[in-house]
Design a protein that fits this description.
Helix content is 34%, strand content 23%. The chain has 13 helices and 13 strands. Helix 1 (46-55) crosses helix 2 (62-79), helix 5 crosses helix 12 and helix 10 (259-278) packs across helix 11. The chain is an alpha/beta fold. A hairpin with a 4-residue loop joins strand 2 (20-28) and strand 3 (33-43). It folds into 2 domains: 7-132 and 324-346 and 356-368, Nucleotidyltransferase, domain 5, CATH 3.30.420.40; 152-318, Nucleotidyltransferase, domain 5. The strands form 2 sheets. Strands 1, 2, 3, 4, 5, 6, 12 and 13 form an 8-stranded mixed β-sheet that branches. A 5-stranded mixed β-sheet has the order 9-8-7-10-11, with helices on both faces. Bound molecules: adenosine-5'-triphosphate and the ligand CC(=O)N[C@H]1[C@@H]2OC[C@@H](O2)[C@@H](O)[C@@H]1O[C@H](C)C(=O)O. Adenosine-5'-triphosphate binds next to helix 6.
Length: 370
């Protein structure tokens, strides 16, 4: 039986970039962050990435079975290397996300992981939210609220995650709890790194545009950018969320451009989607704290900073770890689920009522929390 109060939780995230598994320890009671612990990263090999990619959007099916095996094995390897964890938060790998269609689908079996690790595992974080009419994403915002408190923020600010997809969390740290009215507004901004990575792989056999080197040499095609901005997603009132390839049609508009111009244009699309998203914030955030791999792309960061009159900084500027924030988020959320605290609310996913969602699997037994 787990003790009440603060515990060391281990979180794991396999993101939409399909680059690998992040895992990190957090000491938390689900409300306050008391400390950050060890973390690690396990990359997917190119072969594993191909299997995962082939399974995107396809379930049920043989492709999904093969992808699930990879996700399960990678997590078992990574998570068994930690010591001192009392609880695991296991997100799994999203293969499809259609909140207004077939639902959300993360692969990975938390019950099997609990047996393998001999630890309680919280998983299937998104289903309960969707059952109550929510988007099922993003879920990191309740952790971003705790981070805003941890850094001592006194005025509204925003966290921006630039992963495969981008997501923005506007936080008012003056509110008592993350589920309070007006404490959080969150949503996916648009594509971030996924289209850049896909184009780099298709044209150059490289996984991503390292340090924005190719984008830096290119010229943004204004026509393609304008057509992108006409997408109806940008006028939808948040909360709202996206699948990895929701914008595939739009990003195909760069197919006739030469490599550098195409990557520069996709990078500008990612930045401009964020700028559009910021227009939805209740009041302008005092600063933009950027997490996720896109913060390593100086061209993307410069595009944001040039357009904004507030500081745009990687989260390292306030002592957080931008490579691990999502893994830490699922550690924190697991503790919230264990304590019956909400993990989403109307401001983050549009859910009808604040909900604590997830399955808790104990080694030897599995119970549904919400
Ligand atoms: N030095 C760099 N230069 C440019 N881009 C980079 C660099 N380092 C990482 N990236 C980009 O960041 C991506 C990984 O980001 P991240 O790990 O945040 O994604 P994720 O967790 O899979 O995504 P999501 O948040 O959508 O689940 C890489 O695939 C690459 O596109
Ligand atoms: C369905 C799904 O897996 N969505 C991811 C994805 O990657 C970024 C963005 O789209 C965000 O909505 C979410 O991940 C983070 C961890 C979240 O739920 O907050």
């Amino acid at each position: 039986m787990l003790k009440a109060g603060r515990i060391w939780a281990l979180g794991a995230m396999s993101g939409t970039s399909l680059d690998g598994v992040d895992a990190a320890m957090v000491e938390t009671d689900g409300e306050v962050i008391y400390g950050f612990g060890d973390s690690t990263y396990r990359a997917y090999s190119p072969d594993e990435q191909s299997v995962l990619k082939a399974a995107l959007g396809r379930w049920p099916g043989d492709d999904v079975v093969a992808a699930t095996r990879i996700v399960q094995q990678a997590h078992a390897e990574v998570l068994s290397g930690f010591e001192g964890a009392e609880l695991v938060g296991f997100h799994g790998q999203t293969l499809a996300h259609e909140p207004h269609g077939r639902g959300t689908h993360q692969v990975g079996d938390g019950a099997a992981l609990a047996e393998r690790l001999h630890l309680p595992v919280v998983w299937d974080f998104r289903s309960a939210d969707m059952e109550l009419g929510g988007e099922g994403a993003p879920l990191a915002p309740f952790f971003h609220f705790a981070c805003a408190r941890w850094i001592g923020a006194k005025v509204p600010l925003a966290f921006l995650n630039l992963g495969g997809v981008g997501n923005l969390t506007w936080v008012d740290p003056r509110k008592a709890r993350p589920g309070d009215d007006g404490a959080l507004l969150a949503f996916d901004t648009g594509p971030a790194n996924a289209p850049i990575n896909d184009l780099m792989m298709a044209r150059r056999g490289e996984g991503f545009d390292r340090d924005g080197m190719l984008a830096r040499q290119g010229k943004v095609a204004q026509g393609a950018l304008e057509r992108f901005l006409e997408h109806k997603y940008f006028t939808r009132i948040p909360p709202k969320s996206l699948d990895r390839d929701s914008f595939a049609d739009m990003t195909e508009t760069v197919s006739n451009l030469e490599d550098a111009d195409a990557v520069a244009t996709l990078t500008a699309m990612s930045a401009t989607a964020v700028l559009k998203g910021l227009e939805h914030c209740p009041v302008a955030p005092a600063r933009l704290l950027v997490t996720g791999g896109g913060r390593h792309n100086p061209v993307l960061m410069e595009m944001l900073q040039t357009a904004l009159d507030v500081p745009v900084d990687p989260v390292e500027a306030v002592g957080l770890d931008g490579d691990m924030l999502e893994a830490q988020a699922f550690a924190h959320l697991a503790v919230r689920v264990l304590r019956g605290l909400p993990t989403s609310c109307s401001g983050t996913t549009g859910v009808r009522a604040a909900v604590s969602g997830g399955i808790l699997s104990q080694p030897g037994a599995t119970e549904r929390i919400a």
